[in-house]
Amino acid sequence: MVLLSAQGMDTAQIAEVTFTSPDRVRDVIHNFNADGFDSLGPKYAGGRPPKFDTAQREQIKQIALARPGDHGLPFSTWSLSKLADYLVAQGVVEDISHEGLRMLLRDEGVSFPGGQDLEDQH
Questions:
Q1: What would the DSSP string read from start to end of 23-64?
Q2: Cα distances (Å, whole numbers) of residue 98 to 6, 12, 29, 82
Q3: Is 0.85 surpassed by the pTM of this model?
Q4: Among 73, 60, 46, 47, which residue's Cα sits nearest to residue 102?
Q5: Fewer CB atoms < 10 Å away: N or C end of the chain?
Q6: Radius of gyration of the CA atoms of the chain, in A
Q7: DSSP bridge partners of 3
Q8: Residue 114's pLDDT is what?
Q9: Whole-angstrom Cα distance, residue 91 to residue 114?
Q10: Around Cβ 80, how many Cβ atoms within 10 Å?
Q11: Would the pLDDT of 116 be above 50?
Q12: Residue burial 39-73, b: 16+ Cβ < 10 Å; e: rest
């Protein structure tokens, strides 16, 4: 986000290409301006991974089974990173790791064409 901003892209454009909200983009840029590169490091809280309620799990499953184009996205297949970013941007979850998403989808019985599980591809 910071690099895109430095290249002259506006907040709305950055939000669109990073699948997040303009408010999140502004927060990241503001934090970078205030704290520099230290603001970009991960903030691990530690502890147990978040649990998702039944409604969240169902919503994640439905989105994963749909085509990205059905959600107005410009690509034809999901990757774990794209799906995780989309779920956060849409407010389905506050945060989800790629591995956490992979396990949740496996537990929900979600597989994709050819019987393959969702792979972590970019």
A1: HHHHHHHHHHHHHGGGGGS-----SSPPP--HHHHHHHHHHH
A2: 28, 25, 24, 10
A3: no
A4: 60
A5: C
A6: 16
A7: none
A8: 36
A9: 30
A10: 22
A11: no
A12: beeeeeeeeeeeebeeebbebbbebbeeebeeeee
Amino acid at 90: Q
What count of residues does the chain have? 122
Residue recorded with tokens 């992979």: 102
Contacts 24+ apart (CB under 8 A), 14-18: 18/85
The mean pLDDT of 20-32, rounded to a whole number, is: 91
Taking Cα atoms as reference points, which of 95, 15, 11, 92 lies closest to residue 54? 92
The domain segmentation of the chain, as residue ranges, is: 2-39, 54-114
